[in-house]
Specification:
Blueprint (H helix, E strand, L loop, with lengths): L2 E6 L3 H15 L4 E2 L8 E6 L4 H21 L4 E6 H6 L1 H6 L5 E4 L3 H6 L1 H6 L15 E5 L1 E2 L10 H5 L3 E2 L2 H13 L4 E5 L7 E2 L2 E2 H9 L6 E5 L8 H9 L6 E3 L7 H7 L5 H14 L4 E8 L6 H14 L3 E6 L17 H24 L5 E10 L2 E8 L5 E5 L8 E9 L4 E5 L1
Parallel strand pairs: 1-2, 1-3, 3-4, 4-5, 6-9, 9-12, 13-14, 14-15, 18-20
Antiparallel strand pairs: 7-8, 10-11, 16-17, 16-19, 17-18, 19-20
C-alpha cells in the first residue's frame, strides 16, 4: 500500500484540512509514513499569516524537493493551504519538484475529487479504513469577513460561509460512531456562525445533545462577537470544555482601531470580566502582537498591563510582520526589529510567569483528564488535557487513549501538570 507523510504549519484550521485530506487518503489505502523520505506522497500544509511561517514552510518544501531529486524516487510532493493560495503556480516555479499546489479555497473541492486526482497521478490506491480519532476537528465555517488590517486570511480563504447545522450534527455523530470522545469546532471566527436562525450558541446546544460525545471545544472567537448569550452558553453546557480563546491582539485602543478589530480595550476587558463572573474556572487564552506600525512605548505598556489584569492561562505572542495585500502593509512608522524583539521578550516573560502561577495553583487538586496519546519517545507516559486547556502527563502502562480519568496533580513543570491516578 502507498504511504503519506504530512507536515502542517499554522492554525488548527490547517490541522483540520490536513486531517480531512489524510482521512480521504486513508480510506483509499494510504498508511502514515514515519518520515518524509520513506513516503510515496509528501503533503505540506502551509500558513501565510506571518512572514516567518512562510519562510519556514518554503525551507521545508525545498528540503523535501531536494531529497526527492537526490533519491530519484517516484515520489509526489503536494503543497496546500494559505501560502499555496497566495502564491499559486509561482510557488512551483520557485521550488522545482512540487507536483501539486492546492490553495486553501480549493481544499474541500480537491478532497471531494481525490479519486480523480489519484487516478491522474502515479500514486496507486486501494480501499481501506483509517484509524479512529479520539479527538477530532470539525470546521463549521470557512473564510472571514473581518479584514483586520494585518491579516491575509480573508484574501486566501475567502468570505465567511457557514456549514448547515444539520450537516454538522451528522458529521459529529459519524465521528462519535467511529470512536471520537471530543470534537473541536473550528472557524476563523466561530462566534459569527449563522445558519438561518441558528447562531453559534444555538449550534453548541445542538451538538451538546449528541449521544456518546463527551467533550466539545471550539476556536477561534472574535471579541466583538462574544455575546452574553454565548458566555452564558459556555458557562451552562456540561459537555462544553471550560476554555475560550479570545484574541486581543493589542491592549491599546488606538492600535486596535488601526488594526480594524472592532472593539476597544475597555470593551475587551468588560467581556473578560463577564466571563470570569459567570464561569470563574474558565481558562482564557489569547493572541497578541507587538510592533504594529506606529506602536509607541505607551501602546505596548497598555498591552502589558492588560495581560497582567486578564491573567490569561496561556497566550500566543508574536511580532508584527508586514503581509502583502493587507491595509497595514502601507502604514507608516514601522517599528524597528530591535524594538519588536525587546517588547516581545518582555510580553513573553510576563505571560510565562502568569502561566506558571496558574499551573502551580492546580498542584494537589483533582481533575478529569481526557488522555489522547503517548508522549513521543516515552511509551509509559500519556498526554492529555483537563476540562479547560491545561496539559497533563500520567505515567501508565495501560492503553488509555480515549479515556477520561480522574487524576491528581502532583507537580507542575510550568506548562504541564504531572499527575497520578486517584
Amino acid at each position: 500500500m502507498p504511504s503519506v507523510y504530512f507536515e502542517t504549519f499554522g492554525c488548527q484550521m490547517n490541522v483540520a484540512d490536513s486531517d480531512m485530506l489524510a482521512h480521504a487518503l486513508a480510506t483509499r489505502g494510504y498508511y502514515k509514513a514515519e518520515t518524509a523520505a520513506s513516503a510515496d506522497l509528501v503533503v505540506v500544509n502551509t500558513c501565510s499569516v506571518r512572514e516567518g511561517a512562510e519562510i519556514r514552510a518554503k525551507a521545508r518544501i525545498a528540503q523535501y524537493a531536494r531529497y526527492k531529486k537526490k533519491n530519484k524516487r517516484d515520489q509526489q510532493l503536494w503543497v496546500v493551504g494559505c501560502m499555496a493560495q497566495r502564491l499559486g503556480k509561482t510557488l512551483a516555479a520557485e521550488i522545482p519538484g512540487i507536483d501539486r499546489v492546492v490553495g486553501a479555497k480549493e481544499i474541500v473541492t480537491f478532497v471531494s475529487d481525490i479519486d480523480i486526482v489519484l487516478a491522474s497521478s502515479s500514486l496507486a490506491h486501494a480501499a481501506n479504513h483509517g484509524p479512529a480519532q479520539v479527538s477530532a476537528f470539525v470546521p463549521i465555517m470557512r473564510g472571514c469577513n473581518n479584514f483586520c488590517s494585518y491579516c491575509v486570511v480573508p484574501y486566501v480563504r475567502g468570505e465567511e460561509q457557514s456549514i448547515p447545522a444539520s450537516q454538522l450534527e451528522d458529521i459529529v455523530r459519524g465521528l462519535v460512531d467511529k470512536g471520537a470522545k471530543e470534537i473541536t469546532l473550528l472557524g476563523q471566527n466561530v462566534n459569527s456562525y449563522q445558519d438561518e436562525a441558528c447562531d453559534f450558541a444555538d449550534l453548541l446546544n445542538k451538538i451538546q445533545g449528541i449521544d456518546g460525545l463527551e467533550r466539545i471545544r471550539f476556536t477561534t472567537s472574535h471579541p466583538k462577537d462574544c455575546s452574553m448569550k454565548l458566555i452564558r452558553t459556555i458557562a451552562g453546557l456540561p459537555k462544553l470544555c471550560k476554555h475560550i480563546h479570545l484574541p486581543v491582539q493589542s491592549g491599546s485602543t488606538r492600535i486596535l482601531g488601526l488594526m480594524n478589530r472592532g472593539y476597544s480595550r475597555e470593551a475587551y476587558l468588560e467581556r473578560i470580566e463577564a466571563i470570569k463572573n459567570l464561569a470563574p474556572d474558565l481558562d482564557i487564552t489569547t493572541d497578541a502582537m507587538v510592533g504594529f506600525p506606529s506602536e509607541t512605548e505607551d501602546d505596548f505598556q497598555q498591552t502589558l498591563s492588560l495581560f497582567k489584569s486578564a491573567r490569561f492561562t496561556a497566550a500566543f505572542m508574536f511580532a508584527y510582520s508586514k503581509r502583502d495585500c493587507t491595509a497595514a502593509a502601507g502604514m507608516p512608522d514601522e517599528v524597528t526589529l530591535g524594538r519588536k524583539k525587546e517588547r516581545l521578550a518582555a510580553l513573553i516573560d510576563a505571560q510565562t510567569k502568569i502561566t506558571k502561577e496558574r499551573y502551580a495553583s492546580m498542584v494537589g487538586k483533582e481533575m478529569d483528564v481526557l488522555f489522547t496519546e503517548r508522549q513521543r519517545g516515552r511509551e509509559k507516559l500519556w498526554m492529555g488535557q483537563d476540562i479547560g486547556c491545561k496539559k497533563a502527563l500520567l505515567a501508565c502502562d495501560d492503553a488509555i487513549a480515549g479515556m477520561i480519568l480522574q487524576v491528581r496533580a502532583l507537580r507542575s513543570s510550568g506548562m504541564t501538570l504531572v499527575c497520578e491516578r486517584t
